[in-house]
Write a structure and sequence with these properties.
Chain A: One of its GO terms (biological process) is endosome to lysosome transport. The complex is a heterodimer of chains A (209) and B (785). With 209 residues, chain A is of the alpha/beta class. Chain A is built from seven helices and six strands, in the order βαββαβααβαβαα. Mean pLDDT of chain A is 84; it is low at 182-209. The chains are: A alpha/beta (209), B alpha+beta (785).
Chain lengths: 209, 785
């Protein structure tokens, strides 16, 4: 515990085509916006070092293609994710409706060990536009129904809420990371019951708890 | 099994097999199951856990199991802690559950059985993988487990094998005895109601029989007697098939045994797998498979429907096969390269584990399975213990073998895409120096190559110039129409005027279809709306940095949109997929914003690459796999590194391949590159060699910096607009020449990819190239004359 390892947080951004995944990532990492981004093909990522509660962590933010059929190849990159960012476009009800699908897809593909508590953060992007079609309340309700996911309304174009959202993403990802470390650091504690009756095989659970 | 790690569905399954009705409370379910398990371990269970559960739908149960297997696989990959970690224990519990579940699968038909055995194999693989992790932490505990192990008697082996056979016969309602008066063999495949089409021997006689033929249906089996394996067919009844088109073509040229109509017994067929030369499948009203033997005899079986895939699967598990390639394309003929040594997949994996060192493989498999059948709990203990024994003393091989890898990555259904084995590295001759890039095709040369009618007289010559130097921009507008198949090379000026007129009408017709769609209509046309939305979004962000597409309200964006929308109507099954706008953009520029010409050239381009955009991505997977294969041959050192870094999936080349380097080069280079590829010189897969050339150039960086998948992806993405196109092209060509020189020693699959002829078939099959479909039949008929 004396020396802290350098922490790498892997963050995956998912959401329908053209909801602003690439723009959000670039706004956060490079503080830039252009409407000349091309549709993402394959996958790419950017990294950024940030301070989270006195710790320096490196965020590796993965941007993926939005069209569903390309997801099968993205799986290789989902592995070991610490946080998943679900993005929709507040002017597109369809992209909001897809959130369920993206969440399920991620849980299946990345299969985190504790799906119920895996950190997701939801971003409603493009709030700078006038033709809003998904209300804040509706989005919040959805987030509430999924164990209270954090929700932010952002504009990658005008850098609204982007910094705050990613701060939460980093913090939640780090919390997830530390949970894992906890097990690594105290194996003996668990070994006690493991040693007396071996839990390796089928039907072998003799523990009466 | 740690019941706290099972989810609701899994718990209710475990309870259901123990005869307990579903409960609502997960905690209650856990506590009941825990109690039951304890009783079972103590051997006091009154419950019969052996009975197979009445699963309503075996297929969906298999699907569930495959899904679970995939989930567990991913879980294992994510395990960060040791064997006491939550993650490890979850995966472990789920794996135990899955094993019991697969064990209880009442697989009836061959396909299900095959799935089931692959599932078991997958489970074994995952067990090894987990044990590999566990072995890092503790060695002592395995002793406890060993004490629990029991042995399954040899008697059960026979019993189980017998049951399978009986089951099979009753399932298929075999009307005649299958093995009563024969020696007993092992059955690999059985199917009732398979018809036989023709039975040819090298006989001289009548050539034509164009009328309706008599066919026989019967029982088709693949059997093993002692050491040889046979395809066997016995007739059960006689039936007349109406004349089916193409049969005439198929049958013309080889002879029918005139006697077989009267003498039914004489047409029992037995084909030794060792004498199989090749086979070919066809789907024409009925599924059929023609098998050619080394002695020249040909047998064609007709299947009612899907079982043909089971039959082929069975063959593939028993034989090493390769697709035959001629004129750079697969002919559909599957060449048999030899028998596999030990065919049973389950057998293989267990043999690999060396759990049962001294027994013959077959009996070990059956005792293993019957062990599961009779006493799942104990057998599981035993297997885990044995596996840990093996794995603690040797380094686990964490690469899944072919079937398992396929199962783990399997999409909905298996397709033709199969992972190829790694060939042994071939030592290649040095890369020859090749001609440096030449001058582009200029206007004078191009127009001088036409005769007075306007036909291009020397197509190959023109293509060669384009291959070496591209095209001058001023004539691209004309030349691309030939390269993309809008104009035939030998068309006259007059014919081209006709083509222009016809294709304009045709384009307008399709364009009107979507333009006339009312909002009301669209509101009930989901798929169309999805394509439209995506096009609207992508058009707006395609090459906006180029002057041609820059600025608000640019007319060219409208044209881009129109052509893509019309393509949706032209090919609705494929529709619009991201990446297509990238492919169209340069074409529209070159065609000076002419929608009609752009559309048809785009169609021509899409015809070359449409498999890139398939829903299941099989085309992309195949290309990535092929690329890996080429890299293995050309740059084994790099391939080794990729393998070590778990990156042999080549995903970092996805963007290169999907839009043919559109995103990797500046605009003018993209056009030069595409022209080269459209010539099909020197071979159809030249773009893969360009990938190899670029990667080969980066190999030192990748290896020396010890890049993993993430770093390689970053590195490759960062190459964008920094690759020297001329160098990449000359290197790729040089690699082509290098491989060509080494051709005799190359793997057939490499030869196939690069269109090098495979000697023994080329000699017979070099007749006519126009109708590839019929070549096989022609070649066959030649065998009989």
């Amino acid at each position: 515990m004396a020396t802290r390892k350098k922490v790498l947080l892997k963050v995956i951004i998912l959401g329908d085509s053209s909801v602003g995944k690439t723009s959000l990532m670039n706004q956060y990492v490079n503080k830039k916006f252009t409407n000349q981004y091309k549709a993402t093909i394959g996958a790419d990522f950017l990294t950024k070092e940030v301070m989270v509660d006195d710790r320096i962590v490196t965020m590796q933010i993965w941007d993926t293609a939005g069209q569903e059929r390309f997801q099968s190849l993205g799986v290789a990159f989902y592995r070991g994710a610490d946080c998943c960012v679900l993005v929709f476009d507040v002017t597109s009800p369809g992209s909001f409706k897809s959130l369920d699908g993206w969440r399920d897809e991620f849980l299946i593909q990345a299969s985190p060990s504790d799906p119920d508590h895996f950190p997701f953060v939801v971003l409603g992007n493009k709030v700078d536009l006038d033709n809003r079609a998904v209300s804040t309340k509706r989005a919040q309700q959805w987030c509430q129904s999924k164990n209270g996911l954090p929700y932010f309304e952002t504009s990658a174009k005008e850098a609204v809420n982007v910094e705050q959202a990613f701060k939460t993403i980093a913090r939640n990802a780090l919390a997830q990371e530390s949970d894992v470390e906890l097990y690594n650091e105290f194996p003996d504690q668990i070994k006690l019951d493991g040693g007396s009756s071996d839990n390796r095989s089928s039907g072998g659970d003799n523990c009466a708890c | 099994m740690d019941v706290t790690k099972l989810d609701e569905e899994e718990l209710s399954y475990e309870l259901r097999v123990r005869g307990i009705a579903a409960m609502n409370d997960v905690n209650e379910m856990r506590s009941v199951l825990r109690g039951l398990l304890r009783i079972e371990v103590e051997g006091n269970s009154l419950m019969n856990t052996d009975s197979t559960v009445s699963v309503v739908d075996v297929k969906s149960e298999i699907k569930t199991c495959v899904k679970k297997l995939q989930i567990i696989n991913a879980m294992i990959d994510n395990i960060q802690g040791d064997r006491y970690s939550e993650q490890y224990r979850s995966a472990d519990a789920k794996l135990c559950h899955l094993m019991n579940r697969v064990d209880k699968l009442a697989a009836v038909d061959k396909r299900d059985q095959n799935d089931r055995s692959n599932l078991l194999k997958g489970i074994l693989f995952l067990m090894r993988k987990m044990e590999g992790m566990a072995s890092n932490t503790s060695v002592i505990e395995t002793n406890n487990q060993n004490q629990n192990s029991g042995t399954a008697g040899a008697g059960t082996v026979v019993l189980y094998e017998k049951t399978t056979t009986t089951e099979m016969n009753s399932t298929y309602g075999s009307s005649e005895s299958t093995a009563s008066d024969e020696e007993v063999g092992t059955e690999y495949f059985v199917q009732q109601g398979v018809a036989i089409k023709s039975l040819s021997k090298l006989l001289k006689g009548s050539k034509n029989h164009k009328n309706a033929e008599t066919h026989y249906t019967g029982l088709l089996r693949i059997m093993k007697y002692r050491n040889a394996k046979f395809i066997e067919w016995k007739p059960t009844e006689m039936s007349i098939f109406p004349d089916i088109d193409e049969w005439n073509i198929v049958d013309t040229g080889y002879k029918q045994n005139g006697k077989n109509k009267n003498d039914r017994n004489s047409i029992d067929i037995k084909i030794n797998l060792a004498t199989m030369k090749s086979y070919k499948m066809k789907k024409h009203k009925k599924h059929q498979i023609s098998i050619l033997q080394t002695n020249g005899s040909l047998v064609t079986f007709l299947f009612e429907s899907s079982p043909i895939s089971d039959f082929v699967t069975a063959l593939k598990t028993l034989l090493h096969t390769e697709k035959e390639i001629r004129h750079h394309r697969p002919t559909g003929v599957i060449l048999v390269m030899g028998e596999r040594q030990d065919s049973d997949p389950l057998c293989q994996s267990i043999k690999e584990l060396k759990i049962f060192p001294d027994q013959p493989p077959t009996s070990t498999v059956w005792s293993f399975i019957s062990g599961f059948q009779n006493n799942p709990v104990e057998k599981t203990y035993e297997t885990f213990a044995k596996i840990s024994d093996v794995l603690l003393t040797r380094t686990p091989d964490t690469r899944p073998d072919q079937e398992v890898a396929e199962l783990l990555n399997r999409a909905e259904e298996d397709d033709e895409y199969t992972m190829l084995d790694h060939p042994p590295p071939t030592v290649l001759p040095p890369r020859p120096a090749v001609k440096s890039r030449g001058n582009p095709l200029d206007q004078t040369t191009f127009y001088l190559s036409m005769n007075e009618e306007g036909r291009i007289i020397n197509e190959d010559y023109i293509k060669k110039i384009i291959f070496h130097g591209g095209c001058e921009n001023s004539i691209r507008h004309e030349v691309w129409k030939y390269l993309l198949g809008y104009y035939p090379w030998n068309s006259t000026r007059e014919q081209r005027i006709n083509i222009d007129r016809q294709q304009k009408t045709e384009y307008e017709r399709m364009k009107v279809q979507w333009m006339n769609m009312s909002p009301d209509q669209i509101s009930r046309f989901n798929k169309y709306r999805d394509h439209k939305n995506l096009i609207d979004k992508d058009v707006y962000r395609t090459d906006r940095t180029l002057d041609f597409y820059a600025g608000e309200g640019n007319e060219n964006l409208v044209k881009l949109h129109n052509v893509l929308m019309t393509y949706v109507m032209y090919n609705f099954d494929l529709g619009y997929v991201q990446g297509m706008s990238d492919l169209l953009s340069p074409i529209l520029m070159i065609m000076n914003s002419d929608e009609v010409e752009s559309f048809w050239c785009f169609v021509g381009f899409m015809n070359r690459v449409n498999t890139n955009f398939e829903l299941k991505q099989t085309g992309m997977k195949k290309q990535l796999n092929d690329l890996h294969y080429l890299l293995t041959t050309v740059s084994p050192k790099l391939e080794n590194h990729l393998k070590k870094m778990d990156s042999s999936n080549m995903y970092f080349c996805f963007r290169w391949l999907l839009v043919l380097f559109k995103r990797e080069f500046i605009h003018s280079d993209v056009m030069r590159l595409w022209e080269v590829l459209w010539t099909d010189i020197p071979c159809a897969n030249f773009h893969l060699l360009i990938c190899v050339a670029i990667l080969d150039n980066e190999k030192d960086t990748i290896i020396n910096e010890n890049f993993g998948l993430t770093e390689i992806l970053k590195h490759v993405n960062n190459l964008c607009e920094r690759i020297d196109l001329d160098k990449a092209l000359t290197t790729a060509y040089s690699i082509y020449e290098q491989l060509k020189e080494a051709q005799p020693s190359l793997q057939d699959s490499v030869n196939e990819l690069l269109g090098f002829s495979i000697s023994h078939t080329e000699t017979i099959l070099s007749i006519d190239s126009n109708s590839r479909e019929d070549d096989y039949e022609k070649a066959l008929s030649m065998n009989y004359t």
